[in-house]
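Section: Multi-chain targets

For targets with more than one molecule, the full set of components is provided together so that the structure can be written out for the assembly as a whole rather than chain by chain. Components appear in the order listed by the source. The example entry contains two components.
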Amino acid sequence: AQSVSQHNHHVILSEAASLELGCNYSYGGTVNLFWYVQYPGQHLQLLLKYFSGDPLVKGIKGFEAEFIKSKFSFNLRKPSVQWSDTAEYFCAVSASSASKIIFGSGTRLSIRP
Amino acid sequence: EAGVAQSPRYKIIEKRQSVAFWCNPISGHATLYWYQQILGQGPKLLIQFQNNGVVDDSQLPKDRFSAERLKGVDSTLKIQPAKLEDSAVYLCASSRRGTGSGVVGDTQYFGPGTRLTVL
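Its structure, encoded as tokens over all components, is:
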């Protein structure tokens, strides 16, 4: 069965710091990978996705993620965070043959102004 | 295009009462999903419809939860009777195609959710 692990439950950074949120998944086959973001009081939004091709994926608001197949990882990065990036971030995976998505438990990101 | 609509946004009930949630997906989206998100956890899929047929309901507690998607558009999720542990946010999502569509990847779009509190 598929599963997703997000290593950090709560990350606190200062503005302009660099961000990397870890995500590891377990699944033996071809996968689709996602990062979703939930800003305070708002609904889940897609930040970026990987289906195939270039393993370095660029998303909205300056975020990017790198799919490393050998490590079963899909870490999220941003070189310089802003206060407005305060949110909960969810990594998710689905088998390429299906659309069912399995979510990780989420990482809460707090940015100090 | 309009997003996924859900109502109500908030609901407070007492245990053993019943409750229903409504979802209207993005126009033209064939697949509709209901998720349960308990505080501090990621969303967990309860049921997936493709058009008006059930694709996956393996994690739906069928003794108390039911869902339908008549005419392959709107959907309702019902809980009867509710338990304290059902307190959560219930999310609806839709995607254009879905399982077996032959399309590589399919993005799900989420609604604002219904926050249920069971007292």
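The radius of gyration of chain A is 13 Å.
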